[in-house]
Structures are given as C-alpha cells and as structure tokens.
C-alpha cells in the first residue's frame, strides 16, 4: 500500500503539471492571437524587456516580453527564419524570400540599413569588432554601422552560423570544408577538409585560439593554422552544435550526451538518453540542459 506522504507528493506534482500546462497554453494562445498575425518563423531574441521575432506574415515584431503586447513592428521584410542576432543596440535579421539582411536600431526603432544579397539568408549572423558576417549566395562581411560590404567569399557559402575568434572568422561551407578568414582583409588563412566532416549544418565553435568542429567526429584545430590538435571519435556522429564552457557538450544519434575536456579532448562524462540529441546544450552554473 502506498503511503499518505507518497500520495500527497504525487498529487502536488500532478497539480503543478496541470497549472504549468494551463499557463503555457494560455501564453501560446495570447501571443498567437493578440500580438502577431501569423506563426513565428524565427527564434526570438530578448533586448531590454522586448522580444523580437519574425512571423510568417513577413513582419518582424517587437513585443513586450512580459505581457506579449505589441511594441513595434516592421512590415514587408519577407520571411525571417534564421535566428536573430543582437549586438551594440542593433538587431540583425536575415530574410529568405527577399534575400536581404536588415539592421534595426533598437533605440530609435528605425531600420538603419538593408543589404541585398543574391540568395536566401537562412543562417544566423555573427558580429565582432563592428563587422557582421552572414551567408547567402556568398559569404559576406558587412560594416555593421553603414551596411556597406567589406569583403565577400564567392567560392563557397554556408548554412550554419559562423564563429569569430582572435581576428578570424570561421564557417563550414557546402563543400564541408572549414574556412578561416582574416576579419579585416577577408584573406583566406586556411581551409580544413576531412572525410570525417560530412555535415554542413553544424557551425564551428571558436575560443582562445582553438576552433572546434563537429560532424562524424569532434575536432579541435589550431585557430591560426588549421592543424589538428586532437580528435574525439564519436560513435553515431555529432548531431548538435557543440557548446563550449571550458568543457564541450554535444549529443549524438544514439541518444548520448558527451562532456569533453576542451584542452585534452578526453571524455569527462557521458549520459545516455532514449532519443537522438539534435538540440544544442544550454549550460547554467553546474547544470547542462538538452
């Protein structure tokens, strides 16, 4: 027979689940019907109490993050499906069908500039030292203040977000090569190609002069030369973009979550789940969420 204490705890948990579910359902209905005219198409970004999100009605909305009420909107921007990027008071948003990158001033609420490329903008941008990087028909480096092109790379382009570290921008091209460019000149520093790198949808991670690349296996490369520092063999391949917090976290198609020491490439721990791990990790203090 189950104890009274057990039944009480079970009932409390059940009630909590019901309350949370009702709150979530209420919030979803409110945002969908009261704040936007269509389904959200991009991952939102929070800035100063406002949530910016793209919608299927080709509008970018700025919503009150607490109430969901509409603060501002930017119409006729096309479908924005790539995650938005925020840096130095500016929201960067890429449009699929309009093939345009927009820069929106979050203070004046005005569009600062727009840059028209020759293809869809489907990956999020990267920002560093006054330059914004994004992939479309080519790989572009754009002055974040003026919207003027600094340089472009025409031989290949990317789907996954680029990474920036130590004056270098990195991205994985459709050819599955990892490219490294000088952020100021656009000069190619190196490219890296391996038969084990077969996935073009996982972006690199770069920090402290090292670039990490996940595909069939996980690589750590010298960020200046592209030479291999270590390689961690992954049974089932790397499915989620690695997250770096001194330790590298990622998941594979066998439902395993790995924690790898960033310096040595040695396994710190491994945890098995029941399903494939496609999402990237979120790390808060001593806890990793997948």
TrEMBL record:
Residues 80-188, 202-288 form the Pyrrolo-quinoline quinone repeat domain. InterPro entries: PQQ_b-propeller_rpt, PQQ_rpt_dom, Quino_amine_DH_bsu, Quinoprotein_ADH-like_sf, WD40/YVTN_repeat-like_dom_sf. The keyword Membrane applies. Keywords: Membrane, Transmembrane, Transmembrane helix. The chain crosses the membrane at residues 12-32. This is Pyrrolo-quinoline quinone repeat domain-containing protein. It comes from marine sediment metagenome.
């Amino acid at each position: 027979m189950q104890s009274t204490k057990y039944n009480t705890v079970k009932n409390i948990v059940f009630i909590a689940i019901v309350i949370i579910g009702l709150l979530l359902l209420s919030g979803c209905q409110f945002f969908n019907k009261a704040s936007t005219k269509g389904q959200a198409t991009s991952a939102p970004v929070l800035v100063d109490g406002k949530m910016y999100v793209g919608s299927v009605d080709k509008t970018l909305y700025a919503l009150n993050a607490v109430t969901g009420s509409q603060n501002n909107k930017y119409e006729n921007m096309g479908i924005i499906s790539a995650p938005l990027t925020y840096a130095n008071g500016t929201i960067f948003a890429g449009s699929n069908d309009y093939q345009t990158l927009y820069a929106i001033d979050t203070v004046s609420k005005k569009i600062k500039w727009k840059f028209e490329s020759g293809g869809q903008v489907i990956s999020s941008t990267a920002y560093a030292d006054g330059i914004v990087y994004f992939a479309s028909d080519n790989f572009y480096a754009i002055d974040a203040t003026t919207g003027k092109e600094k340089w472009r790379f025409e031989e290949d382009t990317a789907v996954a977000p680029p990474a920036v570290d130590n004056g270098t921008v990195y991205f994985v091209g459709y050819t599955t090569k990892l490219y490294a460019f000088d952020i100021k000149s656009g000069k190619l520093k190196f490219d890296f190609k391996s038969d084990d790198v077969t996935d073009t949808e996982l972006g690199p991670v770069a920090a402290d002069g090292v670039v990490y690349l996940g595909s069939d296996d996980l690589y750590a490369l010298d960020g200046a030369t592209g030479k291999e520092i270590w390689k961690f063999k992954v049974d089932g391949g790397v499915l989620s973009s690695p997250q770096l917090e001194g330790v590298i976290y990622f998941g594979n198609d066998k439902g395993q979550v790995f924690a790898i020491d960033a310096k040595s490439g040695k396994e710190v721990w491994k945890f098995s789940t029941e399903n494939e791990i496609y999402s990237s990790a979120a790390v808060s203090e001593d806890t990793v969420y997948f």
